[in-house]
């Protein structure tokens, strides 16, 4: 197979910058503050600044930018809100950061078909606000108020993927600008299709390395008639995880089932001023008709009780549920707050559900041996959990030890038929894991696909597929 | 982008045939009867015979075959059971038919994780027989007892995709032999992953044009605690379809909801010796806990009654349900039986649910104007329906008129944001529709991907992507 040329950092050609400035005016910037804002995400990786930032308003403008970049061999890095966790938006080889925040319109809501056509810069909260009153909602919820384009690019999921699926399942169609400036439409609004290669699913999770997403058609879901949420404390993590495994194996359609270890609960109480019992906990949410929610809740309570769970503490009012999930969503920041000035090295393994208890137990032993502060939290219904390893970003030795801990946790997950990343993506940080997980031949096949669509390696170079 | 070289039919090189015969003995055949059996599927297209057929027993043997074919530029056409409907297994340029029927083992059943690792030649009935007693089942059910490899290759679905999804949703991982003989593993047993490009979804629906599937890991589902099935007659098709639309829009998790028009019911009564009321009908199935099944059934009955539906006729005993669904599965053969000696030209459009009533009404008008016998049946919960246009295979004028009717039905579906194929695939018959549906640039992108993985165009040439 042909080789993907290694990207090189070059100064931005003067004529290129002048052309884009003339064309985009204030929507093109080379200001230091702007470049810095676009040169780091929520990961612990060092900043890597783009040479310039542009804010397109429509697909035609994106095409103009891409054609100019391709003509001048300038790397192109898409930017949503910068909440990625594996260095996805770092401009490792400089180039242009294409900020989609001003392409954030809802283009159409098809209530009868339960789908919406949106621009990629819209965030999940903006989308759900736009759906207010429609009786529908968009379920994928990675915690951060990420952009939908970014969520599609990393194949994001989050707390209620166990019931509603990930971005893979909830994007029906896309418009994508390819490296040569051509605009393609993938998928369609029909609920299923066997028409050719699944370009939609190829683009989902491709982290901007195959093209720029300029439009998405997403599935919506009916707001559940009834919702109930509860927390339940357990004597130890093992018993909590066993509750999860039995719930999933019984096929109970829980909407959310989240694990928090004692340290995480302590962090939340401190950060979000909650008064949760400081022990391992599961957060639950049930969606459905009143009768089915009651039935699900009762079955899960019985399972929890068999595993030493305390009584369920119900959050019956909508505002109580909101507070509960807001606290859950702030876990990352609550964790970071446990150690002033630190950054998080976040692990993201996901394993078959039968191995989850062993995988978490092993991770806990590794953390204990490492001496790090590293709370554990997870979308355990999918077999996915995170440890947030708190590091001093200015201490290279600490970062190396944290990465060694991450490697240990990943190695164990892979040995259990798991994946190195359930929902954060490969980005810049996990390329070695990608090879370990899928093998060199599969990564070579990925590289061949990349090369077929982006022969000059200009689309977010240095992410997912190593150049070699 | 580079060009995909057009495939050419050449005689099988003598040395190649001798090598394979020496290696595979009786598992390699050039007998006429064998070649004929592998040269046609259930479509109306003329036979196109392979030059030889081979029956591998393991991945290593598939690799040997592929390497020999690549070395001698011999086309490779995978074969499951031959139940495809768009000429997928026709050896348009000769070459080797790789028959997977002797690679049909269950390699592992992971009951706790609800997945199974299987070889591609196993059929869905064989798989479900192997799962007997496990409390689990594999839901995807295209009617025919197709092989799982074939079902993955065409992104098949069928009667209960509305609840359990299509092959896209039910394959977790694959082993694939690429055109250069390399063996890659895609996906994994974790329920979700963001690790690199989604090669699994790229292979699903690729109809053997990108590689040969030698192993699949599929999702299993818990056998529902309660199942109930019913038929309901309607005064006309419109009212039946409106019942479907309202059921889906309310988010009721029906397991199956199938439409049959009057002609189809007549065909079934004649073929399967049933005594169904000869009017438009919906067949329903509900899965869940006893309480949720009762709740679903009651809600749907109310919707049906509001749309003029007669009382539900319940099939309460398992054997009654089996007879009901066996009759539904035999629709294709029952239809063919309406006109002795005919073949079926089967349409397969799928539209957003809000357009389904209009799409079917338009198709009925087209059929009436055409003078053809063409029963309508459909997986209407997904917006997918088929017309089986009965043609005399020896009358080219009739076939052309049937294809014109198909084109009309497809054009209307595309104008309604639908797809030309919900579940049968593009194969040899729908390449023009693929371009109309996705546009030339998207099909060019598909061709670039094909070329990246199969530069010599040896993997099932002439399917999905036209050569130039």
From TrEMBL, chains A, B:
Q: What is its EC number?
A: 1.1.2.4
Q: Does the keyword Flavoprotein apply?
A: yes
Q: Does the keyword Ribonucleoprotein apply?
A: no
| Cofactor dependency | FAD
What sequence ranges are listed for the domain FAD-binding PCMH-type? 46-223
Alphabetically list the UniProt keywords.
Answer: FAD, Flavoprotein, Oxidoreductase, Transit peptide
Q: Name the Gene3D superfamilies on file.
A: 3.30.465.10, 3.30.70.2740, Vanillyl-alcohol Oxidase, Chain A, domain 4
Which PANTHER family does the UniProt record give?
D-LACTATE DEHYDROGENASE, D-LACTATE DEHYDROGENASE, MITOCHONDRIAL-RELATED
What family is it from? Answer: Belongs to the FAD-binding oxidoreductase/transferase type 4 family.
Quote the protein name from its UniProt record.
D-lactate dehydrogenase (cytochrome)
Q: Native species of this protein?
A: Aromatoleum diolicum
């Amino acid at each position: 197979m042909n080789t993907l040329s290694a990207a090189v950092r070059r100064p931005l050609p003067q004529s290129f910058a002048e052309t884009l400035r003339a064309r985009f005016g204030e929507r093109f910037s080379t200001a230091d503050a702007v470049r810095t804002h676009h040169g780091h995400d929520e990961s612990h990786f060092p900043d890597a600044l783009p040479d310039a930032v542009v804010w397109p308003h429509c697909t035609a403008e994106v095409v103009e930018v891409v054609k100019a970049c391709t003509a001048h061999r300038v790397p192109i890095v898409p930017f949503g809100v910068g909440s990625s966790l594996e260095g996805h938006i770092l401009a490792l080889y400089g180039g242009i950061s294409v900020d989609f925040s001003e392409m954030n319109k809802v283009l159409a809501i098809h209530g009868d078909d339960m789908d919406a056509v949106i621009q990629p810069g819209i965030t999940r909260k903006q989308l759900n606000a736009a759906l207010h009153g429609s009786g529908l909602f968009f379920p994928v919820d990675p915690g951060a108020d990420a952009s939908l384009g970014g969520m599609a690019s990393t194949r994001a999921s989050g707390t209620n993927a166990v019931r509603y699926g990930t971005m893979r399942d909830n994007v029906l169609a896309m418009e994508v600008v390819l490296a040569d400036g051509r605009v393609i439409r993938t998928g369609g609004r029909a609920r299923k299709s066997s028409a050719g290669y699944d370009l939609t699913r190829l683009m989902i999770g491709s982290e901007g390395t195959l093209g720029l997403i300029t439009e998405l058609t997403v599935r919506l879901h009916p707001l559940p008639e009834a919702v109930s949420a509860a927390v339940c404390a357990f004597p130890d993590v093992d018993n909590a995880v066993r509750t999860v495994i039995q719930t999933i194996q019984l096929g109970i359609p829980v909407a959310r089932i989240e694990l928090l270890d004692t340290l995480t609960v302590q962090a939340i109480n401190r950060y979000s001023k909650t008064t949760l019992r400081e022990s391992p906990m599961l957060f639950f949410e049930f969606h459905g008709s009143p009768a089915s929610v009651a039935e699900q809740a009762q079955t899960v309570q019985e399972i929890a009780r068999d595993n030493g769970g305390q009584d369920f503490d119900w959050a019956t009012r909508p505002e109580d549920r909101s507070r509960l999930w807001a606290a859950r969503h702030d876990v990352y920041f609550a964790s970071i707050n446990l150690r002033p000035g630190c950054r998080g090295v976040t692990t993201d393994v996901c394993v078959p559900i039968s191995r989850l208890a062993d995988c978490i137990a092993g991770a806990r032993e590794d953390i204990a041996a490492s001496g790090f502060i590293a709370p554990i939290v997870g979308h355990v219904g999918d077999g996915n959990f995170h440890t947030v390893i708190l590091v001093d970003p200015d201490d290279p030795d600490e970062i190396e030890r944290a990465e060694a801990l991450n490697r240990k946790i990943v190695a164990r997950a892979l040995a259990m038929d798991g994946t190195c990343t359930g929902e954060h993506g490969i980005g810049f940080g996990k390329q070695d894991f990608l090879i370990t997980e899928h093998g060199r031949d599969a990564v070579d096949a990925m590289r061949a696909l990349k090369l077929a669509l982006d022969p000059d390696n200009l689309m977010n170079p240095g992410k997912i597929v190593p150049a070699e």
